[in-house]
Amino acid sequence: MQLIGRHKRELIIGAAVLITVVGLAIFLLPQPKSSSPNTSLSDLFGGNNRTSLGSAGGDVTDSQIAAYQDKLKKAADPDSYSKLGLAYLQKAREVGDPTYYTKAEGVFKKALELSPENVEALGGLGSLSLSRHQFADGLVWGQKAQKLRPATPYNYGVMADALVELGRYDEAANVVQQMVDLRPDLSSYSRISYLRELRGQYDGAVQAMKQAATAGGPTSENRAYVTYQLGNLYFNHNDLTQAAASYQEALSIFPGYVYAQAGLARIKAANNDFDGAITLYTQVTQRMPLPEFIIELGDLYTVTGRTDEAKKQYDLVRGIQQIYRENGVDTDLEMALFDADHDFNLPDALAQAKKVYAVRPSIKAADGLAWTLYKSGDYAGAAEYSQQALRLGTQDSLMLFHAGMIKAKQGNKTEARASLEKALSLNPNFSLLYAPTARKTLAELG
Amino acid sequence: MTKRYLSWLSFVGILVMVGAFALPIFSSSTAKVEASSHREAPLISQDPSADATDLYSFVSPDRPDTVTFLTNWIPYSSPNGGPNWFRFGDDVLYELHIDNVGDAQDHISFQYRFRTVVVNPNTFLYINGPVGRPDDMQLNIRQYMTVTRLDAPADGSCKNTPLSNCAGATRTELGRDIQVAPANVGPASTPIYGLTSLATVSDLNNGAKVFAGPRADSFFADIGALFDLLTIRKLPGNAGGGVNNFAGYNVYTISMQIPINQITKDKTTPTDPKSGSAVIGSWITSSRQSTKVYSDGAQATSGSWVQIERLGMPLVNEIVVPLALKDAFNSLKPWQDATIPAVVGVVTDPEPARLLNALYGISVPPTPRADVVKVFLTGIEGLNQPAGVVPSEQLRLNVAIPPSASPSKLGVLGGDVAGFPNGRRLNDDVVDVELRVVAGILVDGFNTAPGNVLGDGVDAPYQTLMQSFPYQGTPYSSFYYYPANALKP
Fold first, then answer.
1. Sheet containing B209-216: which strands, arranged edge to edge?
2. Residue of chain B whose Cα is closest to the Cα of A182
3. Per-domain residue ranges for chain A?
4. Residue B346 binned pLDDT confidence (cut-offs 50, 70, 90)
5. How far apart are CA A87 and CA A66, in angstroms?
6. Inter-chain residue contact A187 with B41, CB threshold 8 Å
7. Residue A387: Cβ within 10 Å count
């Protein structure tokens, strides 16, 4: 069942060629305007839209989509529209293609036209809004659905996720408590884990994620996902052995699981096997062209001195970002951070980060704003938002690193040292680009 | 049957209900993991190990002073399950509840808990070599079950409280670390599987027996057709022609055979069906523990048990509770049923009846359907209705009615009062019976063709049953596995 194993050689060669070719194409072609809705991932990747989350195919989803489309041709009914919408969301997930978001929105809206209280459509629009990073909208849809179905845990999940991203953590915790009291399962336990992680409760976060994993089916992709999340918890806490074990377990649950492979690639990089990491990440990006993977691959090229190849990855990110935008996904925070990290177009990055924070003052948005302010030279401003970012006590190396750098610029040596030391002791591999910076700055601080 | 519907939906491909969550989009920086804009955990999660499929209860034909309860879990367990075989959940509380009074309260609860042991933690392999005895060391991943009995306190202090959350309940441990039967892997790994599996049948105190492990799914129904707007392939459905969609699949069963005088309210073995202690109502639940989101320091590992599944009569979710209420029903307790208008309301106006009328022109009785209420919520007078019954959804068995010498698969409708809906035996054709009940067979003037001969055209379990405990057939093996649709119904 190992898709990767079977096609490994072809994939490696093919991917290298493909990315070179595609990268050049992006460079030479004019950037698509946001008014042209027809750009798709297959345009970027030469027609290969058969990417996949894991070895289990999207054939089931494809046949569902076909079945509902057929059914709707004969007679329009709200349930079929909303189920088709959910199938589109699933497809988007499986192949990493945001054009399915637009499709999903269309049919959810049709369902509501026919039946304004169609709960699946309301919940589906909630989930869709979350995926598009429109968190205020997500909360509204989730609340509508929850009022109609107060016994359905799904809607609480939508609300909780929205509240977290809006920076309303106490409210999120209340909703998650309701969710777990209603139904303790993988969905609720994994959300408890995340909230604990945000509060800096590492042991509790690990415990809750383990509970989530044991509550999943033995071969379910959901279980592989939370096992992968457990691996991330370990990685971010510098427990590389446990992290690797978790990523391997995720692969045994769901062969070829692309996130787990990315996790293993990160571990290779942490062990200075950059070539191995690049190989694995190339396979990963070929299978699932998510910007988070492509950025990682680009950064691997950067730290190994392969600047041209790095640039191709970064340009690809912009191309994909464009497609996301065309399909209603708000990527402002992500792009602001990407630009700040790589020193691209800082004025735009700062404007975007400010905009995001104004709409949703989550700790992530605060940290993003802090970092873009830092890169723009406004250290006082950066310090204020960095403090906001760390207000929950999150044990997050990246945020602590940002804090340390800001404090260093402000001449606050003691606190700068403390923050940088903390960042590196928590996770010395917290960033390919910036862990070396942290070490260097710490040395300079004396 | 609740979970069969959902499981079938999943199987037929409405998998979206399970996996509808979207992508983490970006990572802002580099090796920091999960720096994507937000965490996207699943919104709906399958919990197969907590998924109830069927409950059977009948006076044991070969030991008529005992009742057998077969509780089945984990639907559509494909025999081809390696290397990750299904298991009972170590974190799940499985319960068989008994109401021996008729007041919809939790009087006795049999609790089943499991723990997984991995003999060699350096491998994920299920089996390392041929396994003959169930405790052979080559069976690397194994489970053990503990059985505890809870009795409600006599002072009524736990009224309207599940026994699992009742501090005053009397707890009696009936059996500890009983091995769960292994999976039927194949002739190399489990060469004498039948014997291996049955070697795990255990005697508890006082003449009770217990067994846990995989068995062939005994349920038989043409679910594919029925859920396609109540299609009956070969009308009216009483002459075969249906497809048994459960052929070829296994389930995981927790089975118990217990002396009648250990579960009746007066500790007798009644012989008069009209006796006040003769009707035993039952339902099964699975629960997981809640927990506090934050716990300020020491993490709270456990909270109260939250019921996440419930099952009594078969096909309850299709006839009693609409899909819209299924989440609510999962957490309802029997003492709440009568207070929920939607639950009672739907029984009195069952949707399948309207469908039968609309699709087949069958003249169904007018609402409210007191007859359906009787079958699902109170039992039938003179058969399995306790005196002063509080309406609630349970499988009710009159233990004073002896096993039939010549059972009819139509149970009561076939003149066999030892059968469904008086309890439920493995061969009872609950689909046919319920279709006919919904069409009006119990109502004067509506016991007419074709309503009274409806069926799905599938008439018996696929796998051969056993004549003694644990009764259900040998599970299909991984080695000889064929796709279910290649098996003949």
1. B52-59, B66-77, B250-259, B209-216, B202-203
2. B306
3. 331-446
4. low
5. 10
6. yes
7. 13
**Residue B12 confidence (pLDDT) above 90:** no
State the DSSP H helix or E strand holding residue B308, giving kind and residue range, or none if neither: strand B305-311
**B40 and A269: CB-CB below 8 Å?**
no
With pLDDT > 70 as the criterion, what percentage of chain B qualifies? 86
Residues in B touching A392 (Cβ below 8 Å): none
For β-strands B170-179 and B202-203, DSSP reports them as unpaired
d(CA B304, CA B160) in angstroms, rounded, equals: 15
CB B199 within 8 A of CB B134: yes
User: At B277, which amino acid appears?
Assistant: S
Helices (H) and strands (E) in chain A, counts: 24, 0
pLDDT in tens, B163-185: 999 999 999 999 999 999 999 98
Measured distance CA(B348)–CA(B320) in Å, rounded: 9
ipTM metric? 0.83
CB pairs under 8 A between A and B: 264
pLDDT of A45 higher than 60: no
Q: Kindly state the tokens that stand for B257.
A: 């055979």
Q: Which CATH number fits domain A331-446: 3.40.50.1820, 1.25.40.10, 1.10.10.10, 1.20.58.1190?
A: 1.25.40.10
Give the residue from B6, B17, B18, B32 with the most A CB atoms within 10 Å of its CB, the best one to mutate. B32
Q: Which of B56, B81, B285, B41 is nearest to B163 (CA)?
A: B285
- A216 contacts B47? CB cut-off 8 A: yes
Q: What is the nearest CA distance from B126 to chain A, expressed in angstroms?
A: 13
| Cα A272 from Cα B1, distance rounded (Å) | 54
* Pairwise CA distance, residues B424 & B446, whole Å: 24
Interface test with B, best of A148, A152, A222 (most B CBs within 10 A): A222
B-interface mutation test, from A59, A100, A156, A185, most B Cβ less than 10 A away: A185
